Amino acid sequence: TVGVVIQGGDGKNVDSVLPHIAQRTFDENPAVRSMVSTVVGGWLLDLRDRYSYFHKLLPLLLTGLSDDIQEIQKKSSDLFDKVGQQYEKENEADFKDKQDFQVWDKNVGIEGKSRPCLGCRALIERNLSKILPAILRDMTDWTAGTRIKAASLLYHMLYYAEDNATQHIEALLGGLYKGCRDEESSVVKEVLASAELVGQHVEPAVYLKLCLPHLTSASTTSTQQTASVLKILTATVKGTSDERIKPHLKVVCDAVVIPDVCDTESADNQEQLLCLVEIITSKSGEQCAQYSLQLFIVVLHLMSLQREGMFDEKIRNCLKNIAVNLQFEGARDLYKLHTKDVIEKLKESHTSWTSHSSSRLLFNTLLLNAGPVVGTLLSDIVPMVTVCLNPEKDPELRLKFFSLLSKLSVDSANTINSTSEFPQHSRTVLVDCIIPNLVWKAGRVAIAIRTAAISTLWAILHADLLPVETCNSTLKDLLTQIISCLDDHSPTTRSITSQVLEKLLTLCKDHYNVDLLHSLYPELLKRMDDSSDEIRVFVTKTLLAFFRAFPSDYDKDLYKLHLEAMFKGLLVHLDDSSSHIQEGVLLCLKEASNISPSIMKEQVKLVQHKHRVSRYCDELLQYINNTTTP
Fold this sequence. Notes:
Largest sheet: none
CATH class of the domain at 512-629: Mainly Alpha
Shape: elongated
Number of strands: 0
């Protein structure tokens, strides 16, 4: 009825009924919404003063294109086509001139859809400046329904506007940034689809000039704002054809690789960066070689900052795709290509790292994942590690680096010793990194540092990465600190130190002088009284290695008192309440008896009657008798 009344009148009452018609686009009854399209379409075709109302009526008709009912979508589309065709006929001369100069037909339609008719595109172009501000305003409305309708309408406006959206790009991008932060998923979906349309029709140089500065100033913007820019940038790049975007991808990569962008702990930002890397990789092809380093660094940052491996699969896919573009067999080749370059960049800041530095996390992640290439870069890596393990550095930083060294040592054949070159750097690691951090200092933090340092030394020794020559040249200084660690407050430190000492006694057994041996046994005997039986068992193994390290020319007569002290101290524990301790001590005493059977025999007989069980003393005496030459 309203449609007929307005149609039959002079058209001056259109403004008064439009708000009511607009409200009916939200009506729950499909028949009402269908009638809105019919009425508005009729006005656009037949209203006498319709040219004055195009900018007010077009949004009402185009809203029907996103209706839930397919029939309403088709009706709205058909009506708009008729309106466009009529408009084209009415302005045929103008369009003919433009077509002659190829202004209108330089674009192609959206893949899978036919291109809108010339009249429809012209109508949107000429009215976009009047309609767009209202759409962007409605996209921030407090009601979800209005925002959803506005976001859908924006998509259809851009679909018809094509490259004419360029002149409104700044305002458009601002609206898209806000829209993609909407709590309604349907709004976000429409906004991202609109961004893809922008990418399809607007020149990359234009939208990148506006998008990228928002990223490079990420340090002055909120995490949420950065995430929205990344979402829209990803969508626009995705919508742009490969040929048009390829010349601009390096600029994009240079922007996202800066620390303010890729050093993000926001899971949302991390996910968007990975999506962007995926899109860039899919579009770049072989040209990816020009900026593979930037992409590699971005992915490494995300690998190091992600929480609990939540993006592991995406990260693996990104690295795999970059490798494929470079015609590599896999990600391992990518590490071979770029690890050196990344380390060179990290050298610029490593002297100022803290435990929380993103560059430190990147370094850690790189070395743990790079594989055998690490072994070829020790001349670069070891000096950086040495700086970060300086005793004056932040304790937490040193703990992180000791942990890194330990992990690399466990799999040394595939990491730091892949080329068998680590032993050449072992003295530096031992003298400049480990020994200074074993020095006793008060406090719990210092205990943690000593535990980490001795654990790292154990890992290096266990992996056979410490040459005998290095061990011998540093033995005196090393033993000084190890002896102090035997008496450490931490049971863990005492336990590991015992195992380290056993390794050192075995490794350098022919290089211990008498003074060193005599300085060791009082500390080892003291540990036999440790509160932990586990540590005492370890000490028995250490003592076994200790007695095997005695030189063949040891003067047992000159050092008789030392031998008596050693034997007495151990014989006490031969009557221990723990059978494990007794068995361990028995093995030690058997080995010790080879140094001086007579002194051992003498000491056993002195204490045998005091032992609760004489079996172990009897076995020891039997062993001495059997091994002593008559």
